[in-house]
Specification:
This protein has helices at 2-29, 31-54, 60-68, 74-99, 120-141, 151-170, 176-186, 188-192, 194-213. With 218 residues, it is mostly helical.
Length: 218
């Protein structure tokens, strides 16, 4: 139970801090770099806050990668998913209360009217590739051979860089739960495009984890 509570709180924090920076801070005030740092900073904080309890996955794609790599059971993965999606929804709900609206909650998207107006193809490729790279960093940084104590920093910095590169493309998901919370409450286009932010990170997670599963990286 403590692991599930940790994953719930961790995912809530990621959505509240990261999406909160986008909604309450905004491009005009803190800019793309500020929003990127908020997402990465949230991960660093939670990695050291709850990492010793649950591993601080706070991301269904990360749990899927851990399962594929043989580091997690199917049962544990599924219950982690429940906690992560619930936490993301709670984080988005808190943000909606603070912002006073569900119209803008930092939801992901692509196409006309969304940030850089990148195509579906661009969004799909970005999310698959970046999730795969993110998972490779996570699995490598948390391996037994990695230097102790630096995993949270490495993972958080990687997420900052991914956001710097890709906010204009999709708003950056690489995390189905992070996309789920805001989309469910915002509805409309965000909800209709949610499928990509489930499918692409899942594919990316499998690709990234496969390098460890078949021992190309070990």
């Amino acid at each position: 139970m403590s692991k599930l509570i940790a994953e719930f709180i961790g995912t809530l924090t990621l959505v509240l801090f990261g999406c909160g920076a986008a909604v309450l801070g905004g491009m005009d005030n803190i800019g793309q770099l500020g929003i990127s740092i908020a997402f990465g900073g949230a991960i660093i904080a939670m990695a050291y806050g709850i990492g010793s309890i649950s591993g601080c996955h706070v991301n269904p794609a990360v749990s899927l990668a851990a399962f594929i790599a043989g580091r997690m059971s199917l049962k544990d993965m599924l219950v982690y998913w429940v906690a992560q999606f619930a936490g993301a929804l709670a984080g988005a709900a808190l943000l909606a209360v603070i912002a006073g609206s569900t119209a803008s909650l930092g939801q992901n998207g692509w196409g006309p009217g969304y940030l850089g107006e990148y195509s579906l193809q661009s969004a799909l490729v970005f999310e698959v590739v970046m999730t795969a790279l993110f998972v490779i960093v996570i699995l490598g940084a948390t391996s037994e051979k990695a230097p102790a104590g630096f995993a949270g920093l490495a993972i958080g910095v990687t997420l900052v860089i991914i956001h710097i590169v890709g906010i204009q493309v999709t708003g950056v998901s690489v995390n189905p739960a992070r996309s789920f919370g805001p989309a469910v409450l915002a509805g409309g286009q965000a909800l209709s495009q949610l499928w990509l932010f489930f499918a692409a990170p899942a594919v990316g997670a499998v690709i990234g984890a496969a390098f460890y599963r078949i021992r190309l990286l070990s």
